[in-house]
Amino acid sequence: MMPNRLLEPALHKIEKPDLIHPAKSTLRNGIPVFALKAGQQEVCKIDFVFEAGIWQQQKPLLASLSNAMLQEGSKNYTAAQIAEFFDFHGAYLQLTADYHNGTVSVITLEKHVDKLLPVIEDLIKHSIFPSSEFQTLLKRRKQRFLLETEKVKILCQKKFSEVLFGQGHPYTLGLKAEDFDNGEIEDFVRFYKQHYHSKNCEIHLSGQFSDSIVDSLDKYFGSNDWEGQATTTETKEIIATSEALVRINKENAIQSAIRIGKLLVEKQHPDYFGLQILTTILGGYFSSRLMMNIREDKGYTYGIGANFVSLNQAGYLIITTEVDKQYEKDTLKEIKKEIDLLRTKLVSEEELNRVKQYLVGEFLREFDGPFSLSQAFRNIHDFNLDYSFYDKYYETIQSITPQHLQNLALKYLSTESMHTVIAG
């Protein structure tokens, strides 16, 4: 029977997906392994995660450059040989350092895992930090830094982080050009030895892999020949500035970068889910209030957004945009207007339903594919949360009311409590 094309198909409520949980095992030396087997392609990802982020460094650049140097030469391989080896096997090596972790990630066909592991072992356990490669990396990073700091959006973001967290805090983007001139290779080698070892490591597997992969990992990483002292994460005081408005003048700048925000609750707080939804309404998707007003209606900017950022030791709201200087004051006025409207007028059921549909779609996308599933696990594991976090978030999306959102706006979104930074 042919369907009647004049009738729209019935709408169905999107149900929460059944999430695949990783299986946990332990290597001989105590390294935890979280293996999430999923997907159809014979591709797997291995993440070696070390507590070796900015939070642990005593001097600028230690975390990022120590991590980057892992591919620049080891006991048995030069930088060129490492690059050629991964390229030959069609594997991808990614090195990243963030606020709390330094990570070595490898994406490869499952059949090549056993060939790659000895090389990965060597660059993690026996990196030698060649002086010439270190100086080249330092020079290249400095050039990139100098170019980036000419942009008003970078100047604005750096100052905003300082206003929010205080000078010297690990979450403050306080890097300076002279920090690149004071880099002594011995400091980076010391940081590497202190943090890249078995007592400071966990391994995350995702994708398709053989049942013997944990045995292979144990062969190369399960021994006690690379022990060290486990890192302890200390709480560091946040000292936010009392300044409500900070301006950075940039000669010849055509645009002004604007950052507005404040410290909010952390991921474990019961108001977290509602604040995520409230932030989405304000500026978290293309049809958000800030976008529809300041971009679509007024035409002041190509883009404006609001994000509720969760870090291990803090959470904060940030509104970001870049506008022509002539629209700066009007943009600030309209941002305040939209925040005040959330406090004084209930969100309509029509708008709330639209946002709920968007958020459910984003919720499903977060678990689309094995690597996304693994990252979703990391997003709770790194905060000492469990999968009930996602159950509560989904339930909040479905059940939250306009009145609840207004109460949250009244409690948290006072413009008088926010900091504004303008660079331009």
In short, what is this structure?
By secondary structure, the chain is of the alpha+beta class. It has helices spanning 62-68, 79-88, 113-125, 131-148, 152-165, 185-195, 213-221, 272-283, 289-297, 328-344, 349-365, 370-381, 388-399, 402-412, and strands at 23-26, 32-37, 43-50, 92-97, 102-109, 201-207, 245-248, 255-264, 304-311, 314-324, 419-423.
Describe the structure.
This protein is α+β, with helices and mostly antiparallel strands and 424 residues long. It folds into two domains: 23-222, Metalloenzyme, LuxS/M16 peptidase-like (Cytochrome Bc1 Complex, Chain A, domain 1, 2-Layer Sandwich), CATH 3.30.830.10; 245-423, Metalloenzyme, LuxS/M16 peptidase-like (Cytochrome Bc1 Complex, Chain A, domain 1, 2-Layer Sandwich). It is 41% helix and 18% strand. The protein contains 14 helices and eleven strands. The chain has a six-stranded mixed beta sheet. It has a five-stranded mixed beta sheet with strand order 7-11-8-10-9. A hairpin with a 5-residue loop joins strand 1 (23-26) and strand 2 (32-37). InterPro entries: Metalloenz_LuxS/M16, MPP/UQCRC_Complex, Pept_M16_N, Peptidase_M16_C. Residues 186-358 form the Peptidase M16 C-terminal domain. GO terms for molecular function: metal ion binding.
